[in-house]
Amino acid sequence: MTPKGQLIVSVAIITCDSVGRLATVHSRMPVILPSNRWESWMDPSITDADDLRKLMEYSDLYDGLSVYAVSNSVNSVAHDGPELIEPITLGEPQTLF
Description:
Layout: E1 15-17, E2 28-30, H1 38-42, H2 49-55
Antiparallel strand pairs: 1-2
């Protein structure tokens, strides 16, 4: 709420250290909260930071993630569409010599 009592609608992406195959792509990844933890996460009476951290602990859910290369078009906000998540085949790495 603002000082004038207006509701502020916002969103945040909470990240954690990458695990599994994702760690080869980037050091951070979004926290994935299983549906059986949603109610506890949204409970306003849970305010202890350690209790909230426990809800975000790694689970078997991360083992089911697919990791594959996509077009570098995802790096530009000018692009939007389902083709951005289509897998691509990478060529052989190039060398300087």
